[in-house]
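Entry type: protein chain
Record version: 2
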Amino acid sequence: MNLTFKKKSFFFKLSSKIDNSNTTYTYRSGWIIKLKNIEKGIGFGEVNPLSKKDLAKCQIQLNQIPKYINSKNISELIKSFHPCIQSAINSALAEIERKIIFQENYYFNEIDQTAILLNPHNALQDLKILQENKFFNSKPLTIKWKVAIQNNVSEEKTLEEILKHLRSNIKLRIDANGSWERKIANRWVDILKDVENIDWLEQPLSTDDIEGLKELNKRIPVALDESLLKYPYLINEWDGWQIRRPSQETNPMHLLKELKDKKGFRSLSTSFETGVGRRWLFHLSSLQLLGLTPKVPGLAMNKNPNSFLFLDEPKSIWDQL
């Protein structure tokens, strides 16, 4: 299949900054790519690396893709490229070949249809505001709290207060982004092990401490995130929760197959994609909710600015870039 390859860069500021233990995100940038085939149509993809270093690497590699190329050659060329480029190209190829057909509406715009990201510097107040809103009194909600940002003594005190205020209709996810040592992680597990409201601890230990993560998973549900990106073989070996980010993996079609095969303990999370990459998040999240272990995804919708970049139609995004 002969293709025309084009790319356009994008940049947007998040509506508010996002802190985790490793970095602060205030903006996102990357590229929208378009593959066109005369007979079969058009496919879009999004290259959205998380670090500035990877952004520079992606730019160099994208410039190595010729304007005219066939599908076999482009698939071979990108095998050594950054996973975000592989994801974008494979996404576009899947769309052209109609291996994925997106719906017109996915209904992830309501607050209870995605996990709510708390302000890590004011998590307790955020929780109280949610619970003071009568609209949320009976709705099942999921909140996510990023930790290992302030000192542990302070965060443990906040945890105790959160647990006191946590109603039965609210599930809690705690994300340390790989920043705890085993001693601290085990202290938190001791506090949380009998709390029914906990969905999971997300990446409590470093990406490399697989044995430590396995031991924690015996005591409390542990979800891997960064470890899966660094060691993709764990996707087939980890029997606990997996936080999956299709724009950061080499081929979202693999996750599509897993979800169609009803494999459980997968949850979708955003890397703050535009409307192009978000189509995959919505589609895969819809499948996940039909599976054996349904959980609302983490889409951070309230962090998206009011911009054409978040339209549902990729052609409209492309035309305005």
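Comment: The mean pLDDT is 96.
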